[in-house]
Design a protein that fits this description.
Elements lengths: L1 H39 L16 E7 L4 E5 L8 H9 L4 E6 L5 E10 L5 E9 L1 H49 L16 H50 L4 H32 L8 E4 H19 L2 E7 L3 E4 L1 H18 L4 E9 L2 E8 L33 H11 L3 E7 L3 E9 L3
Parallel strand pairs: 7-9
Antiparallel strand pairs: 1-2, 1-5, 3-4, 4-5, 6-8, 9-10, 10-12, 11-12
Helix pairs in contact: 1-3, 4-5, 5-8, 6-7, 7-8
């Protein structure tokens, strides 16, 4: 702003100065033409008495010898008169500004003319320009004063508005600094839709994500503790009972088998947690290769078919197309086994069917069952870690609640996605979409 004011002041000053001095020069030129017209008709130097002057005007008439023939107006002593006359005698006409012996400043115009008797004279016409200098000085003072005043007011106003505009920022910072792990439910109040409002909204969204992450972490810790504490309690109780009194070999064997079962259950949980931890850290290794999905499905079906027959369920194939993807065969088998294991657990009668078909650029592996189905309100959470729809059956079914979370990690690691459709009492359909190998 200061630079703009400086440019404006200088421009105004020089524009007015140029205009005023230009007017003076034009006036002197016009008066010189008038005088030349008058003096040009004079018979001789003596017959030039009819000249009249204007207010604030000085007229000097010299002969070429430097003698002042006529003078009109307030007399001031001009400096270097001989040089002026010499230049006019050489045919020049020119303006000059000089300070008089009264310390007044005058603007003059010098030119020459030849009168009728053949003699040449030098005419110098001038006006005092102290009024112009006074006007310019006052304008200069006004511009400087205005500039200083505007700069001061601008600075004070800038500080005021900067302080006022930064207050919401300070408030946001204070609120953000006070938000800790224990009060993540607090939010920054949004009062506007400007940049600060969007900043506050963005911080609120970030705090919401942190709150959700902390809640998930706490829930995860609680779930892990619960799932490991139950088998440990069983092992401890079984061991204590076995040690309280002598038992038969068969009873000891039964106790050891129970302990072994619980150890395997805990080992299974720890393996799955390790898999998910590696997936989170992007350190889980995948051996990607060209994979025939049809062969993979048939291999898995041969493995699980006896379990389905044992439960009286019909495991059948609806459609299997020859589709190839870039995948880790073992990880994909694990994903398919997890879904089939769920279908086996939660289907009491009926059929579990598998389909493999192409849809756009994806191979769709679909597993449908006629099981108990999943309530609609549970569907958004079934891929969460340790989430179980039927919590009452968890330990009895040896369900870790991690199987579908692992399936989701494996599918997404292959660049795919998984969807589930389900109705209570009618069954569920899991659809895995994997990008086809081009």
């Amino acid at each position: 702003m200061l630079i703009l004011l400086l440019i404006f002041g200088l421009t105004s000053y020089y524009a007015l100065s140029h205009s005023l001095f230009d007017n003076i020069d034009n006036l002197l030129l016009n008066r010189m033409e008038d005088l030349k017209n008058i003096l040009g008709n004079a018979d001789n130097i003596e017959n030039i008495e009819s000249i009249s002057r204007l207010p604030n005007e000085m007229i000097y008439i010299y002969n070429l010898n430097g003698n002042l023939i006529r003078f009109y107006g307030f007399f001031v002593e001009l400096k270097n008169v001989s040089q002026i006359i010499q230049k006019v005698a050489n045919g020049e006409s020119f303006f000059f500004t000089t300070t008089t012996n009264f310390n007044w400043t005058g603007r003059f115009y010098a030119s020459g003319i030849e009168i009728e008797d053949g003699s040449s004279i030098v005419i110098i016409i001038g006006r005092f320009i102290d009024e112009i200098n006074d006007v310019l000085s006052r304008l200069q003072m006004i511009l400087i004063s205005t500039g200083v005043l505007v700069t001061l007011l601008g600075g004070i106003g800038g500080l005021f508005f900067a302080n006022r505009s930064l207050k919401p920022v300070d408030k946001i910072i204070n609120i953000a600094q006070n938000i800790e792990e224990n009060n993540l439910n607090e939010r920054i109040e949004i009062k506007s839709e400007d940049e600060l409002g969007r900043l506050a909204a963005t911080l609120n969204q970030m705090i919401s994500r942190l709150e959700k992450a902390f809640e998930q972490q706490k829930q995860f810790t609680a779930d892990v503790s619960h799932d490991l504490r139950t088998p440990l309690s069983i092992i401890q109780a079984e061991a204590s009972l076995s040690l309280n009194k002598d038992r038969s070999a068969q009873e000891y064997r039964k106790s050891l088998e129970l302990i072994q079962e619980e150890v395997l259950y805990m080992s299974n949980i720890i393996d799955k947690l390790l898999f998910l931890a590696r997936s989170d850290n992007k350190t889980q290794l995948y051996n990607f290769a060209q994979t025939e999905l049809k062969d993979l499905i048939l291999e898995v079906m041969r493995k699980v078919e006896p379990l389905y027959k044992k439960k009286g369920l019909d495991l059948k194939i609806n459609k299997l197309e020859d589709l190839v993807v870039k995948g880790d065969r073992e990880k994909l088998k694990e994903a398919l086994l997890n879904i089939l294991d769920n279908s086996l657990k939660y289907t009491e009668k009926g059929t579990v069917s598998i389909s493999l078909f192409k849809k756009s650029a994806f191979a769709v592996l679909s597993i449908s069952d006629t099981g108990q189905g999943i309530p609609e309100q549970n569907l958004p959470h079934i891929f969460d870690r340790f989430y179980r729809v039927d919590k009452a059956r968890t330990h009895s079914e040896k369900s870790t609640g991690l199987g579908l979370a692992i399936v989701k990690e494996i599918v997404e690691a292959h660049g795919g996605k998984i969807k589930v459709e389900s109705k209570v009492g009618e069954g569920s359909t899991f659809s895995i979409f994997l990008p086809l190998l081009k």
